[in-house]
C-alpha cells in the first residue's frame, strides 16, 4: 500500500502510474480529499483537548459552575470529533487500499500483447504438416475433457475431467511436488477458503468487481483465487528470525475466480474457468 504522505507529495506521479494500470485518477483525488479532512479534524481535536486540559487546571484552582459546564461541553465536542476522525480514517484506509503500486518507468504501457516489448526468443515454433488441434478438440476426441456436462451441472466455465485427463492433472501436481521437494520446497495442501484480511493483505481486496472472487454469504470467508492468499496468511502476525529464512513452500489448492468479462482466444477452454487446480511456489525470504 502506498504511503499517504507519498501520495500527497507526488499526486501527479501517482495518477500517471495508476493510470498506466487502467485505474482512475479519481482514486487519488478521493485520498487527497480524505487526507485533508483527516488533518483538519486532528487539528480541531488537538485544540479541544488542549482547552480541556486548561479547563481542568483552572477547575483544580477554582471550581466554578461556569468552568464545570464548559468542561462538559468540551468533552462532548471531543467525543464527536473523535467519532468523526475515526469515520474519516476508515474511509481513507479503504481508499488507500484501492490504489495499486506504481509500475517501473521501464514497463511498457498498453492494453494488449502488441504493446509488449520482446526481450529475447528461445527455440523455434514446431511446424506441422497438418492443422493441429487445440486442447478443446483433443480433450473431446480423447474423451478426457467435458465442458458440456460441467455447464449442465454447475454453469458456464465449469468442466469434468475423465480417465487420463484426471490422472494427468494429479500426475502433474505430483511431478511438481517431487521436483521442488529436491530444491527444498515443502509441499503444502492449503484450505480453499480464507478470511477477508488475508485477501486484503495480498492485494485481492478491495477491488470491487475486478477482484473476481467469491464470498461466502454471512461469513468473513471467501473462496481463494490462488494459494498465495493462504500461504501468505500462514505466517501472518509472526516475526520470523533471519536464520529460518528462506522458507519455501509449494502449495496445492483449488482456485475459484468469477472471470467476469473474460472473452476471446485467451479465454477459450481451460484458459479462463471458474474453478481449477494449481500448484503455487511461495517463498519467504
From TrEMBL:
Q: Name one GO biological process term.
A: seryl-tRNA aminoacylation
Q: Gene3D superfamilies annotated for this entry?
A: Bira Bifunctional Protein, Domain 2 (3.30.930.10), Serine-tRNA synthetase, tRNA binding domain (1.10.287.40)
Q: Please give one Gene Ontology molecular function term for this protein.
A: serine-tRNA ligase activity
GO cellular component entries: cytoplasm
Enumerate the spans annotated as Aminoacyl-transfer RNA synthetases class-II family profile domain. Answer: 134-285
User: Under which EC number(s) is this enzyme classified?
Assistant: 6.1.1.11
Q: What is its main location?
A: cytoplasm
Pfam families xref list = Seryl_tRNA_N, tRNA-synt_2b
- Report the family membership: Belongs to the class-II aminoacyl-tRNA synthetase family. Type-1 seryl-tRNA synthetase subfamily.
Quote the protein name from its UniProt record. Serine--tRNA ligase
Native organism is Candidatus Woesebacteria bacterium CG_4_10_14_0_2_um_filter_39_14
